[in-house]
């Protein structure tokens, strides 16, 4: 009788986990859509279990068809591309400085990235904000002038 209970518990639908798998090759930097994933009956640690967790995110690595979609392989979609000209802003108190720079890497909202100031050719670090500006931080001379 104990064996029957154990078998029933093991086959219970509530105990069987589902994992999202890719339905097609998802290349790195592609944004995942709802048709790109489907549920598969298996438990894979670190893999997504609901489409809402991954739709709209960007693949950081190639994900092959039938493979689990791991949350660690995804990130926010990039809004700044490498070598793209971006507007930088530095704020300290009431002082605001705007300048143009060239992004040295791809970045999504809230991501940190290095930007080369086009006027001074100095590299500064900043964070992409919701308006697409790169907020420069952490320097008494934020745009590398006077060096």
From TrEMBL:
Q: Which UniProt keywords apply?
A: Bacterial flagellum biogenesis, Cell projection, Cilium, Flagellum, Periplasm, Signal
Segments forming domain SAF: 17-75
Its main localization is periplasm
Q: Which cellular compartments is it found in?
A: Periplasm
Span of the signal peptide: 1-17
Question: InterPro entries of this UniProt entry?
Answer: Flagellar_FlgA, SAF, SAF_FlgA
One Gene Ontology biological process: bacterial-type flagellum assembly
SMART domains the record matches: SAF
What GO CC annotations are associated with the protein?
Answer: periplasmic space
Q: Give a Pfam family name.
A: ChapFlgA
Q: What does this protein do?
A: Involved in the assembly process of the P-ring formation. It may associate with FlgF on the rod constituting a structure essential for the P-ring assembly or may act as a modulator protein for the P-ring assembly.
Query: Which family is this protein grouped under?
Result: Belongs to the FlgA family.
**NCBIfam families given for it?**
flgA_cterm (TIGR03170)
- The name of this protein is Flagella basal body P-ring formation protein FlgA
Q: Which organism is it from?
A: Roseinatronobacter bogoriensis subsp. barguzinensis
């Amino acid at each position: 009788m104990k064996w029957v209970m154990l078998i029933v518990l093991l086959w219970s639908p509530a105990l069987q986990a589902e994992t999202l798998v890719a339905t097609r090759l998802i290349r790195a930097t592609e944004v995942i859509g709802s048709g790109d994933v489907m549920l598969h009956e298996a438990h894979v640690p670190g893999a997504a279990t609901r489409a809402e967790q991954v739709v709209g995110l960007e693949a950081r690595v190639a994900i092959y068809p039938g493979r689990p979609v791991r949350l660690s392989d995804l990130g926010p979609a990039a809004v700044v591309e490498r070598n793209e000209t971006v507007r930088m802003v530095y704020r300290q108190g009431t002082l605001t400085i705007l300048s143009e720079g060239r992004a040295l890497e791809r970045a999504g909202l809230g991501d940190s990235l290095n930007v080369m100031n086009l006027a001074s050719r100095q590299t500064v670090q900043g964070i992409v904000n919701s308006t697409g500006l790169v907020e420069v931080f952490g320097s008494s001379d934020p745009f590398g002038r006077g060096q």
